[in-house]
Amino acid sequence: MKTYYSIFLVLCFSFIQAKQEYFFSDDLIDVVIPCHKKDVRTLSMVIEGVKRNIKYRRLIIVSAEPFIEDEHVEWIDECIFPFSKSDIAYEIFLDTHKAQEFINHEKSRIGWIYQQFLKLFAPLVIPKISNNVLIVDADTIFLKPVSFQNEKFEPFFNPRTEYHPPYFEFMNRLIPGLKRVMSNKSGISHHMLFQKSVIDSLMNKIESIHHIEPWKAICHCIDKTKVYGSALSEYELYFNYVFSTSNQPKLRNLNSINVSFSNFVFLDEENYDYASCHTWMGKKVQLADAYSIVFVHLGDVLPSYLVEATHQARLFNPKADIFVIAESKALNKSLDTRFFEDNIQFMATEKLKKTNQHKQFIQFSTLDTAGREGFWRKCTERFFLVHELMQVYQLKDVFHLEYDNMLYVNLSELLDVFHTYPNSAVVFDNDDRCIPGFVYFAHEHALNKMTQFIASHARTGLNDMQIIARYKKTYGIKEIGNLPIIMPAYLEGHVLMSHAGHKTNFSQDYIMNFSSFLSIFDGAAIGQFLGGIDPKNGVSKPGFINESCLFNPSLIKFTWEVDDCDRRVPYASYGNSISRINNLHIHSKNLQKFTS
What single DSSP character describes residue 502? Predict the structure, then answer.
């Protein structure tokens, strides 16, 4: 038996090594885009990119339902294919119960696997399809004219460098002897020209080996232990098969980039032939433990130190979605490359649909629009923009930071504590003043209620610090709770009273949830004491005592410790009590000095 199997492997390997001449047709290309409802926001841009940059005959969307009305676009119902998601799942497991369990699992990748089958079999299933079928992912946008065949109609391939071993393990099970053709080249380029003669050869080969329908054979060769990850690649299969069997395919390099949907609008399109706006780089639906960090800037130019704040946030929160909301005129200027390296998602204010309360605020606010370029008005208006972003992406567990704040904690580790706040939480440094440099919103409805309150009080001329304090006095801590700004040990030795004479009858509010956080949050007092004040407000040097804060930072010892990931983290100690400081409000704007 071993001898026969060895002969079988040798024959398979010999077949792959024997180069053949494919017949490549001069048919004009048909473009096929498999699509799911999650792809709708990029689909129109993908279609427009094809229309502008590719010479084609038919433009076909394959999906369960039509998602776009365009007389130049055809819709093909995926039900014409000889398999469904359920069929594929069954053939992978050959067990009805396990197949259904896989389909229903929250981490199931059946949709991702299914779309690969749609691509592979489109040239065989779609009626009157061209012999040259360009498959384009529903998130891949062509930015420049691109050709896919030479004068002999031989195909061009755009190689990448990705390497994922399970793809090649799968290939070798499907066609013994089929392996990675080029050690430093990958076929995963988010588009590929499938030619009928190659597809026919590939499917015939699969059927001759497995003696069943090719799509079933492919299912049977998928590793069941890896179906919740990336178990196969249609692009790697086709790419390595055609290069293994023929000398006709050609390599060429296109400039491309993977980018989040929000950042796509800010790309310099002259630098790229195409861009892929992957779902995993953007925000569609949050998982149960997902959270977002949001910065807002209103003005013509992004401040240079914003990149320090976003980079610091990313350093401690590698899996969080981090957004920057800003005006297009600021975003259209050259952006620091670190924003893209840290996968910071940008949202232009002009792309956010104004809520009724936002329009009301704009119409009736009496906050100054001239002094300091309308600083106080912009500080208050930002909450409407955060609310509108939350509506667009259906965000929950949102942390809004002012961009002169440095973050020193992975917020996912504190989510359980934040969930004890039913609506929102913020730093107050006395009973009449909020310092909204770090704000938590549990859900969109919490911010909706706050922005309605701000809009209804627009004529009062109260700034953001004052109006949020009034909001708390109106609705209480169940609507907006305090974040701890000092350790309980401090209260044992001192009465809470500011240099300017502010007092409180609610001392416990300022250590709220300290026993759960085991850390504190900085409004401004600590950052000003360590780094000084904004130079626009006077001479900036360390040692400044905030006149309104209820505690005196000079009575506290501040140190820096290095954590297990070799990051500097600030700590505050009083007596025998020591606690991490989760953020520092670097009022002096010298954020670089306080990086980890």
Answer: -
